[in-house]
Amino acid sequence: MAKSESEQMHQSSSSSTITTATGTVLPPFEILYERRLARAIERAKSIRDRPTTAMARDFFDGYGIGGGGDDGALSASWRSLPNRLSTLANRLLRMRSSDEIIVDVVVNDDDRRQLAAAVFARAPSSFLDDFVKFFDAMLNARQRRWERIAINDSSMDEDGDDSGENAVIVDDRPMIGEEEEMELFRSLSILGWIDYHLRQPLGNALHAVTLSSITKIVSGNYEEYGVLDRVLSWKDDMIVPWTHGIVGDVAYVRDNWGARLEYSASECFVRVRMGELFDLVTGYPDTIPAVSELSLALERTGRLWYQELACEFRRALVARLLHPGAETAQIIEVYINTIKVLREMDPSGELLEVVTRPVRDYLRGRSDTIRCIITSLTDEENGGELYEELRRHDARPLEEAELDEDDDEEPPTFDWEPPPSILKRRGVITGQVGRVTSSSRRSGDILAMLVGIYGSKDLFVNEYRNMLADKLLDNLEFNTDKDVHNLELLKLRFGESTLRQCEVMVKDIDDSKRIQTNIHSTLESKAGDNNGIPVVDAAIVSHIFWPALQREEMKYHPTIKSKLDEFSIEYAKLKNPRRLVWMKQLGSVELEVETYEEDEDGNKISHVKEVSCTPAHASLLAHFEDRSAWTSSALSVETEMSEDVVRKRMGFWVNQRVVRCGRERGGEVVYTLMSVGDANAGNDLSFQQDDEDQERAVSIGAHEEEEMKLYESYIFGMLTNLGQLPLDRIHSMLKTFVSGSDHKYDKTPQQLAVFLQQLCREEKLECTPDGLYTRLVAS
Predict the structure, then answer these.
(1) Family, per the entry (predicted)?
(2) 482, β-bridge pairs
């Protein structure tokens, strides 16, 4: 068997000659090396002596001298390319022609390849970049000519002629004429460089000019239909003829340049709109034209830009929306618009799931998110989208809306397949692009997605219950028509059983209106001609079904107490054996405060001021009918409120300029009725500021405090059995053991921490420096 040449060379290094199996004697290694070197030198001389080598050397003679290729300057690098290419193409043609006049000469493919190899072997590193700059300059010159024609046509239409005075110079950059452009097309066609060597520079220049021009057409135009059609028309009028001319008829069809330019225009349109997507969302529904055309452009690109669009939009949401300066209602509004816009682009909902995840996480961390959502659902004046969402005719209960979109009514079969990914559901680049639809994909339920932020509707029901309680107790007219309407709509979405307590609350207010009408009639008949008009209107509630209401121990002034007792007695007769227990702190009192002043003649002039206040404020002021001056300690004894609470409540009347605040020699606070003249003087600001500071004290809401008290026994049992526990362990154990009870634990770790600190202040628990809680046992 014959040995390989490498093995022969290795053996020749250790022996003078090598004999093969056929008996041929090879020369020594040195002789073999010399022969190969000679053949290489001979080949190099033949390449050096080729005409194409000389042509390549002459092509770069003086190339790059005089500048670095600034786009706005006539530098020797890229600006000289047309003349150099024309000379090189003509010399290539004359290689096969004996005449100076070249007629119907076909360029030899070997000569063309040899010339291309010689040129690009000698080319400097910036050679391809110079072609990018030159193609860019040619395209920009063509764009300026195209714009000039458009402007002149519009001027001619307006003036009726096309005089030269209407010619417009778009900018002062050097123009590349049409003759120079045609000569370049001819030269590149002869040389054949576009197919291989200049394809990437040509593509880069086409993309740069396309993106720049489409940005001018598209940017900021959100409310006009037909922007995408205008972009495609610009591509057909400007880019396609130029590309067709430079690559040639055969290459244009063979390399599918038409589809590539179509894709490039749609891609640039998507890129421009991708940077404006946040503005499209915030301006929705005025930006519907831009959104629909962006969806169409995404279809034309085969949905390949979904991932980049999702990342870009997520960054915009985090930077421009998810920060403390944005109100929760604004974030929810943008979130709703985002749902609508992304559903338009991707009915499957996969894009929406990816983009809105930071928004959902941020809203979950805000304490007022649920309250804002419930307010928007039930507030007719400021509700907006959510108010209309609750009134949708095709709305379904949340239990059904939260099902997976793939769960059809029909049971699955063995032929079931999961839906394809976004990237696999690609459209076709044609004039008419169909939307990706599926019978198993359902329309987006905005309310279900908002509830899905927390994963449970119980939090929303509890918040609505608290808000409804405040609204019903503030409703002095006992008009519940709107509340009943909203409640019925919420029952359709959240379920009837979850809102049964709210039904009882509304019914209590309706019953209160009927009961108080009967009691007022009875009291009026008893008063007869004594003008004893009833002054008490009461909202009678079933405390079991209502959230925990604020309680504050106090004693009414006898005048107020007598009116309440009259109402209680009549209620006991009407609803025997039921009795009323007054929530003394709650309610509203309408007072007419009458003050006097003397004129110059000594006559008293009365001034009446109407004031709305709480029962505690009214009871405090009623004591000044008995005498005109009271100390804070005396008012505390009479009203059975702490002295600090008295000072805080009396600050309201100081601000109303009804009483004056001062101090006795012993330092005790004294309140005195003010005349009109004293009220106008305004000399009590110093102590009034102290009262304002007192008002700023933070306290836990009564209903929250009442609910947290229910978990106190659970916490004590944990700490007694397990010893010291951290906050997160207590929180997780409460979620585990209290979830199945009548009082479901649905508090946040922050709310639990506040309650545990309250227990520490009450000396029921102790918190170690490591954050561990221990139960204190009295000895």
Answers:
(1) Belongs to the cullin family.
(2) none
CA–CA dist 550, 703 (Å, integer): 7
**What gap in Å lies between CA 128 and CA 201, rounded to an integer?**
6
- Phi/psi for 594 (5° steps) reads -110, 125
Q: State the CATH architecture for 702-775.
A: Orthogonal Bundle (1.10)
Ordered by start, the domain boundaries in the chain are 5-46, 81-197, 296-408+425-455, 468-574, 589-695, 702-775
Q: Which helix (H) or strand (E) holds 72?
A: none
**Is residue 235 within 8 Å of residue 273, measured between CB atoms?**
no
Asked whether 317 and 352 are in contact (CB, 8 A), the reply is no
Quote the CA–CA distance of 551 and 604 in Å, as a whole number.
Answer: 42
- Between CA 188 and CA 549 the distance in angstroms is 87
Cβ atoms of 440 and 419 closer than 8 Å:
yes
What dihedral do alpha carbons 256, 257, 263, 269 form, nearest 10°? -170
Q: Does domain 589-695 have CATH number 3.30.1330.60?
A: no
What is d(CA 210, CA 269) in angstroms, rounded to the nearest whole number? 9
Those residues with Cβ within 8 angstroms of residue 769's Cβ, 6 or more apart along the chain or in another chain: none
Closest by CA to 452, choosing from 367, 567, 385, 353, is 353
The 3-state DSSP class for residue 349 equals coil
> In this predicted model, what pLDDT tens digit does every residue of 343-400 receive, in sequence order?
888 877 778 888 888 998 888 888 888 888 888 888 877 667 788 888 877 777 776 5
Query: How far, in whole angstroms, is CA 456 from its chain's centroid?
Result: 22
Q: How many helices (H) and strands (E) does the chain have?
A: 35, 10
pLDDT in tens, 583-623: 888 888 888 887 766 666 666 677 788 888 888 899 999 99
- Which residues does residue 593 pair with via DSSP β-bridges, in sequence order? 609
Do the domains 589-695 and 702-775 sit in the same CATH topology, yes or no? yes
* Distance (Å, whole) CA 559 – CA 535: 12
**Which residues are 18's β-sheet partners?**
26
Higher-confidence residue: 428 or 2? Answer: 2
The radius of gyration of the chain from alpha carbons, rounded to an integer in Å, stands at 44
Integer CA distances (angstroms), 18 to 1, 6, 736, in order = 14, 13, 89
Specify the amino acid at residue 635.
L
| Residue 645 to residue 662: CA distance in whole angstroms | 17
**Which alpha helices (H) appear in 49-126, and where do they start and end?**
51-59, 81-94, 109-122
Is the distance from CB of 705 to CB of 752 less than 8 angstroms? no
- Who has greater pLDDT, 610 or 146? 610
Q: Which of 381, 401, 403 is nearest to 392 (CA)?
A: 401
